[in-house]
């Protein structure tokens, strides 16, 4: 297969010596991102401070992320992590009798369950939709989401096996039941097209260190403008106020839109990285990235099965993202062995995840699977 993005590979130094297939954990860092981090550090070294410029870069990052998901910039807030976003949203809710059910799934990242279960002492009741053979059947949302459901909290792409959900179909169901839809897009943003308006998503969270090709320390929260204006966050800070430069310690005046969910000074260095990384993704186009990753994922599934590996990723193309997960006993140990052989993959529980990005090739995947099968044979 001809690599349509071969000219971008030199932007990622790690590819010169390693096969990097762990975008589901940490995307490869580009020279453009590294240069943006250096620019931030140099401004501190030479000017002693860069407050105003750094704030502008945060706004640039917000604007770029908004464009990436089809939102307006005033519908985006910057926080430190997706876990922080979950807690900020959960603590803003009132769990009143008759409207106090939180529905999530057993395929969501543990943070989701942890945060929602922590709200039970405040009146919430948590229901987990069970998975069935590595997927959540759409009809389960009809069964588990009821008129007393306040929020339906789901992942777009499952971190464990790459299962991708039909967000618009789920939104139609849960909205008919009177529930809000909260989407964890950490494993999809940057590799799967997202349009929050067309998909009718109420709340969405994403971090930057995976397919968005940034570093830890920054996450983005989207909330529909009309919904954000109704909420008064209990997790707040001076950046979440209408005019934080007034330094008014006696009064809370929430900022307009989703910005009211911001707290303290963001990680500026992470914002510099995010702005540069998302610019690159927008230049290529997530639709183009998604089409290419569909081909790589199909190859990974086909070649993995040919080599005798057991996949836990859905075989249907419309039910998966860019992650291919193979069942592997002692996955963590196998991940470490492969890393010593210059192949970077990611283990979770009992699977090895192969998660390419646009900079990867079919040969990368072939070599990784060949080495994986060699290691598994040697460690039987």
From TrEMBL:
Pfam families (UniProt xref): Aminotran_5
Organism superkingdom: Bacteria
InterPro entries the record matches: Aminotrans_V_dom, Aminotrans_V_PyrdxlP_BS, PyrdxlP-dep_Trfase, PyrdxlP-dep_Trfase_major, PyrdxlP-dep_Trfase_small
GO molecular function, one term: transaminase activity
Cofactor list: pyridoxal 5'-phosphate
The entry's keywords: Aminotransferase, Pyridoxal phosphate, Transferase
Every Aminotransferase class V domain range: 50-362
PANTHER family referenced in this protein's UniProt entry, alphabetically: BLR3095 PROTEIN (PTHR43586:SF15), CYSTEINE DESULFURASE (PTHR43586)
Similarity comment: Belongs to the class-V pyridoxal-phosphate-dependent aminotransferase family.
Protein name: Aminotransferase
Organism per entry: Aeribacillus pallidus
């Amino acid at each position: 297969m001809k690599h349509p993005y071969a000219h971008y590979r030199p932007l990622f130094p790690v590819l010169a010596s390693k096969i990097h297939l762990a975008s589901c954990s940490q995307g490869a860092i580009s020279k453009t991102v590294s240069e943006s981090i250096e620019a931030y550090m140099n401004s501190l070294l030479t000017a002693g401070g860069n407050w105003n410029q750094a704030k502008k870069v945060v706004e640039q990052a917000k604007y770029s992320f908004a464009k990436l998901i089809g939102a307006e910039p005033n519908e985006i807030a910057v926080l430190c992590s997706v876990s922080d976003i979950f807690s900020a949203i959960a603590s803003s809710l009132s769990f009143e009798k008759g409207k106090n059910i939180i529905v999530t799934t057993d395929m969501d990242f543990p943070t989701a369950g942890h945060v929602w279960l922590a709200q039970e002492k405040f009146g919430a009741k948590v229901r987990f939709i069970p998975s069935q053979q590595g997927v959540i059947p759409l009809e389960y949302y009809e069964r588990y989401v009821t008129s007393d459901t306040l929020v339906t909290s789901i992942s777009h792409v499952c971190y464990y096996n790459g299962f991708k959900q039909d967000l618009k179909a789920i939104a139609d169901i849960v909205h008919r039941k009177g529930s809000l839809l909260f989407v964890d897009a950490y494993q999809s943003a940057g590799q799967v097209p997202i349009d929050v308006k067309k998909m009718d998503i109420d709340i969405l969270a994403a971090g930057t260190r995976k397919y968005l090709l940034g570093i830890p320390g920054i996450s983005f929260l989207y909330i529909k403008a009309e919904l954000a204006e109704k909420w008064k966050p209990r997790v707040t800070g001076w950046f979440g106020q209408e005019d934080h430069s007034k330094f008014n310690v006696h009064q809370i005046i929430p900022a307009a839109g989703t910005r009211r969910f911001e707290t303290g000074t963001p990680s500026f260095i992470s914002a510099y990285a995010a702005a540069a990384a998302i610019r690159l993704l927008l230049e290529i186009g997530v639709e183009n990235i998604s089409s290419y990753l569909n081909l790589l994922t199909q190859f990974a599934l086909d070649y993995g099965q040919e080599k005798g590996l057991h996949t836990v990723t859905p075989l249907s193309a419309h039910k998966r993202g860019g992650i291919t997960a193979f069942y592997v006993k002692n996955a963590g140990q196998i991940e470490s062995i492969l890393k010593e052989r210059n192949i970077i993959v990611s283990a979770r529980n009992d699977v090895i995840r192969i998660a390419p990005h646009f900079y990867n090739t079919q040969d990368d995947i072939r070599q990784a699977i060949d080495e994986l099968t060699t290691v598994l044979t040697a460690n039987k």
